[in-house]
Amino acid sequence: MNMTSVAAAPGAAEPPSAFDTGYYDLIAYVVSNAIAGEIMAIENYSEMVHLMPTTQAKIETVMQANEECKHILLLSKLGRTLDIGVQRRIVEPQWNTIRKHFSNAVARRDLPACLIIQDLMTETMAILLYRTLAAEAETDPRTAQVAAAILKDELEHLEIGKARLRELLAADPAAVHDALAWAHHRVMPELFAMISTSCHFLCDDLGIDCGSLSLGSIRTDIEQLRVRGLELYVETLDSLFDPKITNPLIASMSAYEGASNMFPQAASGAACCGSQAANRVPAAAASCCGPAAKAAPAEAACCAQTAGQA
Amino acid sequence: MRAGRGVLLTGASGYLGSLIATTLLLGEPDVRILAPVRPGHDPLALLATLRSELIASGAVAPEAMLERLSFTALPAFGSLAALLPELAAFGIEEVVHCAACLDYFDEAALQAINVGLTEELLALAGSAGVRRFTYVSTAFSSGYVDHRIGETLHGDPEGDPTDYTKTKRLAERRVAESGIAYLILRPSIVIGHSGDGRYSGKRYGLYQLWSGIERLLCREWHETIHAFAPRERINLIHQDAFQNAFLAGWQQLPDNSILNMVAAEACAPTVRDLWVLWLEAVNRPRQTVFYDRMADIPSRAIPPPQRALLALASVNLEIIGHPWRFDRAGLDRLIAAGVTFPEATLATIEICQNRLIDQSAAIEKFLAKHEQRFALAG
User: Fold this and answer.
1) Is residue B356 part of a domain?
2) A window 78-107, beta carbon within 8 A of B
3) Are residues B128 and B168 in the same domain?
4) Do residues B352 and B197 make contact, with C-beta atoms less than 8 angstroms apart?
5) Which of A161, A292, B32, B112 is deepest in the core (most CB within 10 A)?
6) Mean pLDDT by 10 residues, chain B (378 residues)
7) How many domains does one find in chain B?
8) Confidence tier at A138 by pLDDT (50, 70, 90)
9) Which range marks the domain in which residue B259 is found?
10) Do B209 and A267 touch (CB under 8 A)?
11) Considering only residues 249 to 288 of chain A, which have any Cβ-Cβ distance to chain B shorter than 8 Å?
12) What is the CATH number of the domain that holds B77?
């Protein structure tokens, strides 16, 4: 449960010269978004405390929130150490959307949905993020060190969530399955939309040229990250649920915007036709983000008949 | 009113819609097409796609043909009547409705678009005095039934693979009940051209599976591959077969016809055949374990990429695992009357597969990385 403290070793503050401006812009972007996720996690854990069934569980949940606070401090310190600007507020709208769904679940006193949103879905994506940053061969030592420390906590949070959900599954599997489907269709599109280097406003706030960001700086790419994210999510679900329950949910991810380059289905697989969809923007385009993109709504949409749909 | 017959074509920005547009431009010299598209679409990009297809189809003067095509902005739902003056000015005599929602998992959008939009278009067509309404449905609109699927309107089935098939079935009924003469076309899974494999559609159907393997199973070599491969035949038709059948049906079939645009069962490969074809060309595992039923696959025990692929493609895999049997008397009559309908055989499917393989950087990298291993394996 305890977060590993990352002491700043003397001399470690100097970023290695092998990393260029593009790399540090990317780290600033990623770290800022990670902080936003941690802020959301604090709010989520805090909001669900009163739903927890036992005092011990309430204490544990508060401690989880506290750990997320420490992550923010660590990430902020990383920004100062690397001399990169980071934002300590939620900028990207997806986080607020997820928060809204979470609050909705709290209002319904739907504890399974809360646990699924925060402990399964969000933590799984956090694990993907911190694992990527913790890869020492790809990132600077300081970033790798901080990411590894946070990763340890997030893995624990995932396990705590799984244990709680196993209890709930044993008591009322149907309710948990319903909660999973509800949360999956609302939260996973938002989380996957954020596996991207295009943004709504964050780059502007950071003073970064959005189009210049490239995951090549850490020797990966969006597609690879999304595939890893998918595999990790499937692994998480498989540890709790029957594939008969989860397969249709995962299949629906092929319709996510930006999935075309990764998953089978859609260049913009999701579908619709009306004018609401007119301004749809490829959220996962690895480099984009002109003003038009930033103004675009994100309804799922498409239109034209594609034959292959069996 | 301008000279020539006006046709309102919805969904022209999609794969089937673009094939229909090029078919009409090539095969019906007096037809002019008005294509409403969402404002987000770039007409120049759409034109480029159509131009490419026209050229690939042998058109000698594609620009002149494209002059018979006009795009217009698709109004918001509930406001389609705003198109009425434009329809009158364009001299619209026929509607070909190809736009659809294909998101299996968005029930509201499926209902709103596949049923709601169709209803609204029918009302518009009625107001405009349109002579015939052609509706592009799907071969699977029957839902799961245990009898041969006829060329008639469907009743309520035991169940539906997804709400997509259900809403397409409902839309067919709306079309038939509209009082406007109709033609309902039900293509099965359309794949690339039988001659050169070209395909400009999104990655649905068979392309979903191929692309899934490309993305998920070509990052590393898998010694054993676990494949859901029922022995059912998979009903695929080539885009050129679709185009030829569309044009013939549109020109020749009497009003109020329904046409199953499906493959001849005897020619159709099994899902297992397709797996073998792909794995021999690309992944070349030491061992492949085929499963007849999804439930037999030890999901939690197989490697994560294979598990992810299985889950991602699960809905379509389950659909193709169903023993679909179609009547195709209407198509057979058209073929007997001279329509060319190249069946999708393993050989022609391989052409499409090879086209995708040749265009894939991921597969090229995979094959290069494992060249030595594959050479040793013979």
Assistant:
1) yes
2) none
3) yes
4) yes
5) A161
6) 82 96 97 92 92 95 95 93 96 97 87 97 97 98 96 96 96 98 98 96 88 91 94 95 98 98 94 96 95 90 92 87 94 98 97 97 94 81
7) 2
8) confident
9) 5-191+236-264
10) no
11) 250-255, 260-280
12) 3.40.50.720
Q: Which residues of chain A are within 8 Å of residue B312 when distances are taken between CB atoms?
A: 230, 250-251, 253-254, 263-264
Q: What is the pairing mode between strands B224-228 and B257-261?
A: unpaired
Which of B134, B202, B363 is the mutation pick for testing A, counting most A CBs within 10 A? B202
Over 80: is that where the pLDDT of A255 sits?
no
Question: Which of A246, A272, A304 lies closest to B17 in CB terms?
Answer: A304
3-state secondary structure at position A94 = helix
pLDDT at B88: 96
Q: Are residues B213 and B245 in the same domain?
A: no
B240/B313 same-domain check = no
CA-based nearest distance B59→chain A, Å: 23
Locate the chain B residue with the closest alpha carbon to A247: B311
Under a CB-based contact definition with an 8 Å cutoff, are residues A263 and B215 in contact? yes
- Whether B328 maps to a domain, the answer reads no
- Determine contact, residues A302/A271, Cβ cutoff 8 Å: yes
Q: Per-residue pLDDT averaged across A109-124, rounded?
A: 96
Give the integer Cα–Cα distance in Å for A306 and B13: 10
* A302 CB within 8 Å of a chain B CB: yes
The pLDDT score that the predictor gives to residue A213 is 58
Question: How are beta strands B189-191 and B69-73 bridged, if at all?
Answer: unpaired
Q: Is A238 on the interface with B (CB under 8 A)?
A: yes
Q: Determine whether B291 is exposed, middle or buried from the number of CB atoms within 10 Å of its CB (0-12, 13-18, 19+).
A: middle
Distance (Å, whole) CA A77 – CA A145: 12
**Rounded to an integer, what distance in angstroms lies between the CA atom of residue B12 and that of residue B23?**
12
- Please check whether residue A298 touches B, CB under 8 A: no
CB B48 within 8 A of CB B94: no
B293, B312, B366, best to mutate vs chain A, most A CBs in 10 Å: B312
In this complex, do B104 and A255 lie within 8 Å of one another by their Cβ atoms? yes
| B153 and B223, same domain (yes or no) | no
Q: What is the ipTM of this complex?
A: 0.78
Chain-chain contact of A274 with B117 (C-beta, under 8 angstroms): yes
Helical ranges in A135-265 per DSSP H: 141-171, 173-193, 202-206, 222-238, 243-251
Instruction: Note whether B207 contacts A308, CB cutoff 8 Å.
Output: yes
Q: Is residue B377 part of a domain?
A: no
- Element housing B152 (H / E): none
Residue entry with tokens 């309430």: A58
Q: Which two tokens stand for residue A156?
A: 């624990």
Residue B333 lies inside a defined structural domain of this protein: no
Q: How many residues does chain A have?
A: 310
- Contact criterion met (CB below 8 Å) for B23 and B242: no
Length of chain B: 378
Q: Could you tell me if B230 and B240 lie in one domain?
A: no
The CATH topology of domain A21-269 is Ferritin (1.20.1260)
| Domain coordinates in residue numbering, chain A | 21-269
Contact B294 A247 (CB under 8 A): yes
Put simply, the answer to whether A265 touches B204 (Cβ < 8 Å) is yes
Angle at B285 between CA B284 and CA B288, to 5 degrees: 120
Task: Identify all chain B residues contacting A231, using CB atoms and an 8 Å cutoff.
Answer: 304-305, 307-308
Count of CB atoms within 10 A of residue B58's CB?
8
